[in-house]
Specification:
The chain is of the alpha+beta class and about 500 residues long. It has three domains: about 100 residues, no CATH class; about 200 residues, BirA Bifunctional Protein, domain 2 (2-Layer Sandwich), CATH 3.30.930; about 120 residues. It contains 15 helices and ten strands. The strands form three sheets. Strands 2, 3, 4, 5, 6 and 7 form a six-stranded antiparallel beta sheet that branches. A two-stranded parallel sheet has the order 1-8. Strands 9-10 form a two-stranded antiparallel sheet. The longest helix is centred in the C-terminal third of the chain and has 67 residues. The chain is elongated.
């Protein structure tokens, strides 16, 4: 009998050591989360795998032998969505119009022809990357998360009317294509109900950032996916950051610069126009002026005196025609006028605004650079804190998951290695008592206490208060017995 007790004690010590080791050395698994707008024009035939043979050849990345594994969650006609959502609003609008040319026959075609508004929106949602899906279990888990997230999508987003949703399992990674029509209301001009993504999501959630509603909405949906991962003991892996930039002030400053530059360009153009008006092919025929000058010759006359002769000599002047002279007068006058115009431009606004523009540019971009650096630093700090918080949350979730598993494993182990329920319970109670002695707030103790509370509740529904007191008394007696046995064995708490 003594040897049995020793074996039980050694078993308890061994299990306790394994328990603590297991709860600390939990292997953490991480997977990425992605939710983004489709970058290309939506191809519903591609999403629903109703492509012709030529289209299939272009999509060589698809393993069509696995297309039967795809999950088609919603398949509705887009035009039908438009009829259901906008027919009454369209009718109300047309009834108010007195001019026939202002009426809209088909709102679907009206939006289709619009260059400002898209008919619909498509989101691509993905859990993990291609390296995460070596096993079928991981793929099944990703599908499970995507479907769970999708089931609550319309409740969270009543203004986003889904017309197509499919999970692709025949490509490198499981992912969802989600297509919807964003519907906003309360318009004073046009239809009272219209297609507008940003307004649709801000109307259903007033807490969204008005400057970047999509980014804010996307972040909330991603966090929900992240929570679903954590519930399965998997932390989110960050493969990139969402660059959120507050560009309002930047755009305002840039518009101011554009106006200054526009005015500056206008003055430059005026100067260029004046320059173009100057003749570049002025052709005036000018001849040198000569006169006859009497000069002494080397020859001498009969009286021995030097002879004189007449020679042609340049006067330094030129001779032009009367027409050319008049032309020069006109050009001279025109040149003087343009000089005065240029002088006026340069002396008033042009030079000053040019210097002002250079100064404003330098100040603006220095300010923007400083703010950009500060913004990046804050984002990095925020991202670091978020990552640390998520990592700690994930670790805690994983550790709790591991402890719960260890608790159940140990309990089952005692049941399988004892002859009776009472013996296994006694041994397990002894184990809990030892653990509690090391740390009264131990997770094992918390789980044990929760089980005890649940048993008391069950007992209260089955028995009278007297019976409950009797059970409590029995438990106290059992605890006292365990303590006495420990003292008898000389065990240190």
């Amino acid at each position: 009998m003594r040897s049995v007790e020793i074996q039980k004690t050694l078993l308890l010590q061994k299990v306790t050591k394994v328990c603590y080791t297991f709860s600390i050395e939990v292997v953490l698994v991480s997977m990425s989360v992605s939710l983004k707008k489709a970058t290309k024009k939506t191809n519903i035939r591609h999403n629903n795998r109703t492509m012709n043979e030529k289209e299939k050849e272009k999509n060589s990345h698809i393993d069509y032998s696995r297309s039967h594994e795809n999950k088609y969650l919603v398949q509705k006609d887009l035009k039908e969505i438009y009829r259901d959502e906008f027919s009454q609003a369209l009718k109300n609008y047309n009834e108010k119009q007195k001019r026939a040319d202002r009426k809209i026959d088909d709102y679907y075609k009206h939006i289709q022809s619009s260059k400002k508004t898209a008919l619909q929106q498509e989101m691509i949602v993905q859990i993990g990357d291609k390296d995460d899906f070596s096993s079928k279990e991981k793929k099944d888990m990703a599908n499970e998360i995507l479907q769970e997230w999708f089931l609550g999508f319309e409740k969270r987003n009543p203004n986003l009317k889904i017309y197509n949703a499919v999970i692709h399992n025949d490509e490198a990674t499981p992912h969802m294509h989600l297509n919807f029509v964003p519907v906003a209301t309360g318009y004073k001009r046009g239809l009272e109900k219209q297609v507008a993504f940003d307004k649709a999501i801000t109307q259903q959630d007033e807490t969204l950032n008005k400057e970047r509603p999509f980014d804010d909405w996307r972040e909330k949906e991603v966090r929900l996916l992240e929570k679903m991962l954590l519930e399965r003991g998997i932390e989110r892996k960050f493969v990139g950051t969402n660059e959120y930039q507050d560009v309002t002030e930047f755009k305002k400053k840039m518009r101011e610069l554009e106006l200054i530059e526009k005015d500056l360009k206008a003055k430059k153009d005026e100067l260029l126009k004046l320059n173009e008006e100057l003749p570049v092919d002025l052709k005036i025929v000018a001849k040198k002026e000569f006169k006859k000058v009497e000069v002494k010759s080397k020859e001498k006359n009969m009286f021995g005196m030097a002879k004189t002769e007449f020679v042609r000599k340049e006067t330094g002047n030129v001779v032009i025609s009367v027409d050319d002279y008049k032309k020069l007068l006109r050009l001279s006058k025109r040149n003087e006028e343009m000089k005065n115009k240029v002088k006026k431009i340069l002396s008033t606004d042009f030079a000053k605004e040019n210097r002002k523009l250079q100064t404003d540019n330098a100040v603006l971009f220095a300010d923007l650079k400083s703010k950009a650096i500060e913004n990046i630093r804050l984002k990095e700090d925020n991202l670091t804190l978020k990552n640390e918080n998520r990592l700690l949350t994930s670790k805690m979730a994983s550790i709790r998951l591991g402890i719960n598993l260890a608790y159940k494993t140990i309990k089952d182990f005692f049941k399988s290695h004892t002859d009776s329920i009472m013996a296994s319970r006694e041994l397990f109670n002894n184990f809990i008592y030892m653990v509690k002695g090391n740390d009264p707030k131990n997770e094992f103790v918390k789980i044990y206490q929760q089980e005890q509370d649940e048993e008391k509740k069950k007992a209260s529904s089955m028995f009278s208060m007297k019976g409950v007191k009797q059970i409590d008394s029995q438990q106290r007696d059992m605890q006292q017995l365990v303590k006495k046995k420990n003292r008898d064995r000389g065990m240190d708490r």
